[in-house]
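Quick one, tokens below. Sequence please?
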């Protein structure tokens, strides 16, 4: 799947005639990001219920939680080709249908193995949605509004995380603070996973109300349909015939990057590709998704009651939203590198405090606790970590990956960097249950070290892209 990266001389900075409609289109497409965030975090509320229901080891539990990420990698790979063959809207609808099926299956598993299968299927759907949404938004947005409309995707992801935690909190309260308590004839954790089908169904229905991408319409020869869409989304006064001709010319002449284009340098790949991989990997190695996938188990492992653990999971999601809003306001003002550095320093300090607090863990079995002072430090450190991540690496990495690669390799390089991110996410998510059994404080020391290592990585190798045109990246 491709998107235009060249300057668009026929576009105007004036307001589109139907700006509200353009916002509606972008917001509907961003529901794919909402599903991404919702499914990524909904498992958080089900972890202990799954462990108890199937009596599985920490290693196997990590597999069930993380396997959706491997499905997401597969979905991200196939989404582009499907979108070029079937259209952007059709791929959104396929992703919504797969997500509904995966969510219902996850709610009604016979064993841990078919639960893993349904989780993988849901992962395929979120991988597809994570790719198609930003591409579609870029293709229907007027250039003057593209940056703001593209930010809907990240906002939808963090909103999806927060809503999933709020729903989980409500359900566990209805089940008398027991993830295995009875709800609607099922255990509470099953209902948590099944409820995810509702936003997916809504997403699928809403896609019936938005138009196909004009770029896809032009690529399939449907020029009149493309003009009608462009008339609604382009700035007032745009020459629609010239705009159609420009897109048609770009489709015919653009370079479709391949893996071969990435080869070069002494390390096998071009240096800029390694920097992209490094950004993606560091974003995950600091352990951010441990918070979103395991925070309920994490807090319960240090003596917090189930209701309290669900509440803290929800509050960290709100902090994540606040951090994301701060990043959206600052990323074009102070630049990508300064914001990333602020985040790295803040994350290192917060993670270090959390690791210190967890080293005071006392007791065994069901009688585990933290002293009051260390418990408060752990909560403050975890929330601070999420805030600094949200206002920096959560947004900055995606901005940099979209800007830093030269035009001729952008698509392929983004694919490699995104794959590296999914794999690193999987590795951290898979390993955390075993690491926390071994030494919870030690796990957080490791994440602290990665946050510290990201500082020289930014200073020495990450380029500043603020204020530069895409054509300047070489």
């Amino acid at each position: 799947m491709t998107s235009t990266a060249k300057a668009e001389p026929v576009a105007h900075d004036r307001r589109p005639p139907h700006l509200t409609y353009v916002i509606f289109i972008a917001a509907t497409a961003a529901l794919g990001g909402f599903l991404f965030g919702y499914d990524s975090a909904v498992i958080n509320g089900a972890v202990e219920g799954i462990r108890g229901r199937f009596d599985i080891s920490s290693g196997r539990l990590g597999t069930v939680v993380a396997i959706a990420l491997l499905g997401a990698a597969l979905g991200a790979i196939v989404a582009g080709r499907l979108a070029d063959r079937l259209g952007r809207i059709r791929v959104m609808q396929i992703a919504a249908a797969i997500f509904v099926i995966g969510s219902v299956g996850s709610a009604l598993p016979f064993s841990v193995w078919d639960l893993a299968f349904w989780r993988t299927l849901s992962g395929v759907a979120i991988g597809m949605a994570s790719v198609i949404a930003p591409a579609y938004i870029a293709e229907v947005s007027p250039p003057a509004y593209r940056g703001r409309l593209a930010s809907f995707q990240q906002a939808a992801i963090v909103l999806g995380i927060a809503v999933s935690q709020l729903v989980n909190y409500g359900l566990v309260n209805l089940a008398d603070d027991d993830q295995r308590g009875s709800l609607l004839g099922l255990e509470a954790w099953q209902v948590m996973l099944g409820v995810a089908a509702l936003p997916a169904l809504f997403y699928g229905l809403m896609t019936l109300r938005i138009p196909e991408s004009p770029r896809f319409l032009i690529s399939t020869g449907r020029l009149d349909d493309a003009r009608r869409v462009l008339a609604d989304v382009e700035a007032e006064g745009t020459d629609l015939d010239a705009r159609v001709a420009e897109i048609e010319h770009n489709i015919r002449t653009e370079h479709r990057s391949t893996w071969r284009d990435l080869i070069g340098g002494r390390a096998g790949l071009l240096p800029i590709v390694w920097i992209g991989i490094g950004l993606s990997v560091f974003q995950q190695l600091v352990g951010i998704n441990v918070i979103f996938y395991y925070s309920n188990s994490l807090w319960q492992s240090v003596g917090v009651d189930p209701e309290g653990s669900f509440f803290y999971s929800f509050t960290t999601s709100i902090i994540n939203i606040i951090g994301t809003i701060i990043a959206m306001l600052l990323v074009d003002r102070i630049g990508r590198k300064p914001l990333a550095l602020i985040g790295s320093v803040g994350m290192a300090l917060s993670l270090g405090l959390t690791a210190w607090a967890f080293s005071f863990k006392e007791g065994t079995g069901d009688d585990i606790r933290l002293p009051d002072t260390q418990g408060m430090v752990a909560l403050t450190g975890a929330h601070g970590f999420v805030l600094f991540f949200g206002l920096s690496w959560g947004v900055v990495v995606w901005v940099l990956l979209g800007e830093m690669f030269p035009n001729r390799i952008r698509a392929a390089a983004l694919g490699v960097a995104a794959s590296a991110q999914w794999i690193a996410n999987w590795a951290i998510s898979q390993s955390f249950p075993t690491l926390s059994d071994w030494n919870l404080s030690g796990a957080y020391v490791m994440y602290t070290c990665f946050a510290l290592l990201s500082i020289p990585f930014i200073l020495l190798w990450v380029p500043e892209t603020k204020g530069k045109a895409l054509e300047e990246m070489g």
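Confidence is low (pLDDT under 50) at residues 2-12. The CA atoms of residues 362 and 457 lie 37 Å apart.
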